[in-house]
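WARN no homologs supplied; continuing
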Amino acid sequence: TSTLGVAMAPPSAPSDELLSTILFLINNHYWCALYELYVDARRLNVLDADLPSLNTLKSFFNDSKRFPDGVFRAVNDAFDSGVSAARVVDAESRAAVAEYELRCAREDLQNSRRGAGGVEDGGEDASGASVRRGVDADDAFAPTSGDSARSSADDVGLDAKLDAATYEYLSRRGYKATALSMRDESSTAAKLMEKDFASDGERTFGALRRMYERARMTETTASALESERARVDDVESELIRARARIDELERENTTTTTSRDALSSKLALAESGLSDLKVSAAQWEKKATESASEVNRLLSELGAGNEEWSSRDGNGVPRTTIEENDTIDAVLSFICAIAPKVAPAARKELLPMISRACVRAAGDEKRAARSSNLFFELFKAPNVEQRDAIVDAIANVGEIVGMNAFEGTFIRGCLGSEAVATMNEERRVLVLDAIAKLGASSWFTLNNFVMDGFKRAAVDPSDGVRAECSRAVERYIAANAPSDDNMETIEDVLMTLACDGSDEVADAARATLAPAVASWYLGANPRRFTDVFARKVLDKAAEALRSGWTGEGAEREFKGWVSPEDGDRHRWHATSLVKTFEAFARPIREALSATKPASIADGVDDALSKDVPDSWPFAQWCVKEASDLIVQVISSTAPDVVGQESVRESICAAVASWCGVLGALATRAVLIGKVNDACLVSYDQRRAVMPILLAGVVPYTPDGGAVLGDYIKRLIQQASAESCDEIIDAARYLAAFEQHTANLLDALKRCAHPIAENPPTVRLITARLLAATSEILPLKHVLEHVYPALNVLRADPETSV
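OK structure emitted
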């Protein structure tokens, strides 16, 4: 490379060395090196100053004998045939071949230099000036007149010929990899548009030089790849170390988690032990308080019998007890003085102080009574919120001091019957709430005191206290599980309140207490509810109504009561009991759903309409015994007389609720048949039962509205003109129910038309029914429905109608 660089250095005068090198390469057939020299000489603009060298190269490469046109065409065809599969040959192999060729050319050139070095300076040898003169004298190397004009076009053709010749030479010599690389490089060179070398100012390298550059690039790339591979190895090593660190951290985390779980378990055990200790401490504190209260009580009793013991001279009561009693007295006096001056809304803040005074005064009868009375003196008329706060404070005092001390302080004191009798209504309600709260407390054991308090409140002269009694007993049942003996007492309280002369009291009992009692019985003791309690309610209702009836069977008739007062009393009692049973409807329906065996696939309504199995005894009771008891009450309803309408309405409402319990299907399958049979007993009983049948039973069957209209029409068609009073009475009663008015009028209008199925008797009874119901119906219905029906009857062809 250095020799070529010296030979191709651009001299100021023509260089004989360049021409000698060219002739040496031609004579030794180093055509690839010659081509490389030619390209480098053109790139460095050496040939522009050395015309003999330029003409020698052009004449050599333009020789058609040495480089025929067929060779160039074959090479060109090979270039256009596409990318050869040999392009994928390993780059290192091609670079090695190219470097080998280049090294051979360099060695030959160096040998030639050493052979010519023996000539003395200034002499002329075969490769010196004599060679140049020989070339100048040879016409083959002389420049022609058209060379300068064709220089640009010949350059391109000459390059293509040289490329083709180089490719042929490499292929013939067996350098296949180099030949393939040469072909690839020539195709690339052709795309570079190397047409005008004179205007570029810089010429591209030849194929061998580009091959060499690619080999160097491959070597550089290989080095870069090795460096990248080393870096990747370092990264992988770092990754391995990171993964090892992660594993180590995970092991540490697992160890920490295990340690934390162990500590959590120990902490839970410690907290459980602490909770047990707190409970134990509270129990011991409670015992200590009870003991202190008992000591105070004993000291008080002892002081009452021995004045010296209660003295302050150090020989009697201990100084600490005396000082505590003084403190309690001061606190109680302060509360009594400050309470009237505090706003009622803020007086609840004094309850903790009063509670503490009661606790410390337990055992001292005088001070305990004074402190406990403050609960009831704090408010003149406490509201619900204030009552709840006071009741909670009283129960808290009892839990602290214990049952014995509480009994001495409250039960025989402010909560006793004698003290309650002197209180106003609001404070008696407060006492009732306190009793209900105490009855629901686990520490309170005097259940008889609670029952006595309820019975006393049930007969209290104040309506407000009696109404509150129902709500208090309901809260007691909900918070406690009363015994059977207590429930018997609660039954009596319910019966007393439900039959109370005050509507407020009776309604409160039926709205709150009655459902609570029924729900408790059906959940805890359903046999007592079905066999005793519910039967007792319905039997007493039927008994109150039955007292106005005489006879049996077809001879049964209503005679009335001894006096109007007696009749009012029986009617009121029956109405109250029937309404009470109506309050049982919702709990009974819920119990039916809860007790249905899993073996019954049908719903409750469908199952009740079929044969109820023995595995469902409560459903059997509803379908049979309970329905029979209700029919007995219906059969004892008195005819429509003055003062009797309320009884009929209450019975009708209770029967409608019972139809809701059974469902529409069971009402049609069971109840309607029982009530129909009751209509056939006697005339008076028919008059008593038919209004309830039409208003309270028939509409609650499947498609009840249509069934009611057909039922009324059949009754009219089956009646006679002389005995239709019971139908008229039933129609008058049915007209009072707005939800049944449309069905009633529709049936009457259908019976008013003179058609075959409406004989004159039917039309005549229809006219009487229209006249009777017009007294009950609203004016709007009379104008829209009754008058048009009467006009149809007025135009009837039958004179009697």
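The radius of gyration is 63 Å.
OK
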